């Protein structure tokens, strides 16, 4: 599943388990009755995990959300199982607002809980739930989807390969399975796209970057025709690459606006500062993610009137 994928349920009782089958070793956040997320580590070794126990008898709300991204391992949900004497009951009404975030390791929250720039990727230091997209959604009381995968770009990945741009993965339920096709029954009010860091990893990608980005936007528009589309810039690009990327994105907005798409805009988030800390492999820290979320929240409020 994509990072940030969440399961929500309500039960009447004192505790609840979940049955999951993990092909890797993933990390989830568990929230009970709106409380802060606690960490659940899953693995191939077991399929049943206790989410809550010893609660006061009565109705309780549960959120189980995936912190880690797709390549860490696919997870199959099987069932929520209330403790003896308990039962599942109807959940509360779904969110009225919906935001989709399309991106790379930044949107995944890669290394945002790491100790500094010299730590490598580990599943336990990646937390999409505290990445800027999830933070923005919570600030706006919105449901969000994160279609994000580390190393990917609009045109090429951070190694220079053009074999799997985000437009190719966008239609999938499971990122690494071409057979898993999403039906797009869920429609977003706002779509935020933040791609470019990996496209520029080997230098200026040129017009191919613009073309790849346009192809992705065309797909987005097919499925979310009325959404506000936000092209996000930052926070890892700097210097000449930042200037080039800004120019490319401005040209995309200009061209599509001329063609009649009036719900597309560019939002730039400030380049990260070392004084705000650094995550693993020089990725944004928790502080930087919050600053990004503040910028994006304000921009979406202005666009939508939320």
Folded structure, characterized:
This protein is 24% helix and 25% strand. It is α/β, with parallel strands linked by helices and 306 residues long. The longest helix is centred in the last third of the chain and has 20 residues, at 239-258. The chain folds into 2 domains: 6-89, Jelly Rolls, CATH 2.60.120; 98-304, 3-Layer(aba) Sandwich (Rossmann fold). The strands form 3 sheets. Strands 4-3-6-1-8 form a 5-stranded antiparallel beta sheet, with no helix packed on it. Strands 10-9-11-12-13 form a 5-stranded parallel beta sheet, with helices on both faces. The model has no long low-confidence stretch (mean pLDDT 97).
CATH-wise, what's the superfamily of the largest domain? SGNH hydrolase
Structural class, by secondary structure, is: alpha/beta
Q: Please estimate the helix content.
A: 10-25%
Number of strands: 13
CATH fold description of the largest domain: Rossmann fold
Provide the residue-averaged pLDDT.
Answer: 97
Question: If classified by CATH, what would the architecture of the largest domain be?
Answer: 3-Layer(aba) Sandwich
Strand content: 15-25%
Stretches where pLDDT is under 50 for at least 5 consecutive residues are none
Shape designation: globular
Which series of helices and strands comes N to C? EEEEEEEEEHHEHEHEHEH
| CATH class categorisation of the largest domain | Alpha Beta
- How far apart are the first and last residues' alpha carbons, in Å? 29 Å
From the alpha carbons, calculate the radius of gyration and give it in angstroms: 20 Å
Neighbour order of strands in the largest sheet: 4-3-6-1-8
Number of helical segments with 4 or more residues: 6
Count of domains: 2
Characterize the main sheet.
5 strands, antiparallel
